[in-house]
Specification:
Layout lengths: L5 E5 L1 H24 L8 H4 L1 H27 L4 E4 L2 E4 L3 E3 L4 E7 L9 E6 L2 H7 L6 H11 L3 E4 L3 E2 L2 H19 L1
Helix pairs in contact: 1-3
């Protein structure tokens, strides 16, 4: 029998819509630049060349750059993997099952983007010390202070089955408990 695994993917629909919106704004900004300021406009931003050209130039350049950054996000790997070796976060951090006490769902009613799962660790200080050079270390430190654990999985932009995730996590936490007992 194969051990259960779980993999959550980035919500590609949200990324594609953000990318197309940014690209459309960039095209609109370029169009406005080509046609120039409108001296008869009631809006000062569209009337005054000293305001119009820098603003439209900024839009025409920055929005396509944002679209390219979105496309790079599509190429990234799975941000959440669960398997026999542990929980993998963003492909860079792997937390073994024997270091995990529990995985608890978390929801912030004031900030829906902060919903996800809190990974309760046996030794959070050791985990932080091991990942001191990681690029997300300041965020892990902040999560430890506010949530009580440095390991947190945001699920707002992920497309996954929460029931399957819970099932796989319960399976491996049970296996880890049997090994530790």
């Amino acid at each position: 029998m194969n051990p259960p695994t779980f993999r959550a993917e980035i919500n590609r629909r949200q990324i594609w819509s953000a990318m197309s919106f940014a690209l459309a704004l960039g095209i609109a900004g370029a169009y406005m630049l080509v046609h120039g300021a409108d001296p008869g406009s009631e809006r000062i931003l569209l009337r005054e060349p000293l305001l119009f050209y820098p603003f439209m130039g900024l839009i025409a350049v920055s929005c396509p750059v944002l679209a390219v950054l979105c496309s790079l996000k599509l190429r990234g790997g799975s941000p959440l993997r669960v398997g026999a070796e542990g929980i993998g976060l963003s492909g860079a951090i792997r937390i073994p099952w024997n270091d995990i006490v529990a995985v608890e769902p978390f929801y912030d009613p004031h900030k829906p983007a902060r919903c996800g799962y809190k990974i309760v660790l046996k030794d959070a200080g050791r985990f932080l010390a091991e990942h001191r050079d990681h690029r997300l270390y300041p965020r892990m430190l902040s999560a430890l202070k506010t949530l009580g654990s440095p390991a947190f999985v945001y699920t707002y932009n992920l497309s996954f089955d929460p029931h399957r995730f819970d099932q796989v996590v319960r399976h491996y936490l049970g296996v880890a408990d049997r090994r530790g007992a």
